[in-house]
Every structure is written in structure tokens, then in C-alpha cells.
Specification:
Layout (H helix, E strand, L loop, with lengths): L13 E7 L1 H11 L6 H11 L4 E7 L3 H17 L17
Antiparallel strand pairs: 1-2
């Protein structure tokens, strides 16, 4: 998590990043995308077949301003390394983008 700078993280923040092996990840993703009537699910299933690595990151931070700084650094990191964000889930009705 090279993109996370200490100055952007509040004292009560919790950040977890996990690299998952694809042989373990793909079956769960494929099962979630089995709906043949859902066009988006079919497109996602095609993308999943091409995945080489899977990293899951969670961020829990009560400081909205610092959250925005972390997200900005994260997007710069993705662009620099030519990565793509596959999925973003914001909980508790928050929209941070």
C-alpha cells in the first residue's frame, strides 16, 4: 500500500489490504456472476477470466477530508502503475467519488 501516506491517515483509521490467489478467488466471483439474464454479469464474467491478480483493500476512517486525500493518492497510484479499479463499495450510504 505504497500510496498511503501517514499524514493522510487519521489516528483511528483501519486499513487492510489482502492479496488473494486467483485459484481461490475466481470460483467465488464466477458463482456470483452466474445470472445468464444479467448482461452486466456476463460482461463481468468475461473480465474475470482475464484477471491475473486480485487485491482487496478496505479503509475505515472517520475523517472525510483525509479519506478524500487517500482516495486521490490511490487513484494516482493506479494510474502510475497502469492498474484498473474493478469494484468500489461505499458503505453506510457514503459516496466518496
Amino acid at each position: 500500500m505504497d500510496f498511503v501516506r501517514g499524514s493522510n491517515v487519521s489516528n483511528n483509521a483501519e486499513i487492510v489490504a489482502i492479496n488473494l490467489p486467483m485459484w481461490l478467488t475466481k470460483p467465488f466471483i464466477k458463482k456470483a456472476l452466474q445470472d445468464e439474464n444479467d448482461e452486466d454479469a456476463q460482461v463481468m464474467a468475461g473480465i474475470v477470466k482475464k484477471l491475473k491478480k486480485f487485491r482487496m483493500m478496505t479503509l475505515s476512517n472517520n475523517d472525510r477530508e483525509k479519506n478524500m486525500l487517500i482516495l486521490e493518492d490511490y487513484h494516482k497510484f493506479l494510474k502510475k502503475n497502469k492498474f484498473e479499479e474493478l469494484l468500489v463499495i461505499n458503505s453506510e450510504g457514503e459516496d466518496l467519488d
